[in-house]
Amino acid sequence: xxxxxxxxxxxxxxxxxxxxxxxxxxxxxxxxxxxxxxxxxxxxxxxxxxxxxxxxxxxxxxxxxxxxxxxxxxxxxxxxxxxxxxxxxxxxxxxxxxxxxxxxxxxxxxxxxxxxxxxxxxxxxxxxxxxxxxxxxxxxxxxxxxxxxxxxxxxxxxxxxxxxxxxxxxxxxxxxxxxxxxxxxxxxxxxxxxxxxx
Amino acid sequence: xxxxxxxxxxxxxxxxxxxxxxxxxxxxxxxxxxxxxxxxxxxxxxxxxxxxxxxxxxxxxxxxxxxxxxxxxxxxxxxxxxxxxxxxxxxxxxxxxxxxxxxxxxxxxxxxxxxxxxxxxxxxxxxxxxxxxxxxxxxxxxxxxxxxxxxxxxxxxxx
Lengths: 198, 159
Known about the structure:
By secondary structure, chain A is mainly alpha-helical. Chain A has helices at residues 3-29, 37-43, 48-56, 59-62, 98-101, 132-140, 150-159, 161-164, 180-192, and strands at residues 72-73, 78-79.
């Protein structure tokens, strides 16, 4: 085979080599700059939404947000003892209601937990079995969340006495895995970010 | 702390630690002994009484929350000893108690039940009263509540 006959192939190979060289140069020129150490550390931390989800999925919250009609107890989420059910208005009854045993504060003698308006969340606010994203969508859905705007739902989660009880649940009960001040900070950041649910 | 409320229609004032269980105030301060201490965990129901008409486990009810409210114990369930409450009539007729310790709590729960569910079934009774009787008188309790509901209906019809 003569050099003349190889000429088209050599030209083609030269062209390919040029394209590869230029591509590498382009990638090198547009390479993502190293992320500063501080930002890189933050990016590995949970997002505000993930922080909020950690709290919402803790037993102190989930036990009273069942998707069925039975309140739960304990960190293992077992069915509430004494056969307690949702009742017609989420407060059990009609004979024995939540307030038959639960009052506005934790009881220092019986260790029965208590907080204002103790009761189950409405069934539309049932969280069992939801993925994180589904849970996020549910708490933002006005048809499920008590017709609350994102601002109102964030305010509810950061100020409602029954929600805040989770960080003061009484002896022998675990608190959510996120401190209250961090939870409140995450709520504000989540709202500012437009309440993304991922 | 001074706390004022009414018990069986009578105004009372007590000066006690506000966290004191209402049960102890009723028994020790007001000397009304029908209401009993059972488990002390708001489970067994021996300490049941009514507050503003609602059924409450008084062992788990700080007296501070009774301020201004109306408390009813078994002693005040009937209008008078001559005119007993249908639950009391039925309890005697069916001869419910064995040792009797838990019965006041059951009777207060029963009174609330026939008020809320005037025509209860056995299932209604089983589902809505979680009190515990260690003597196992539950079958007679159910009979008595069904009887009390009948008596109550007759009473309402008369009036």
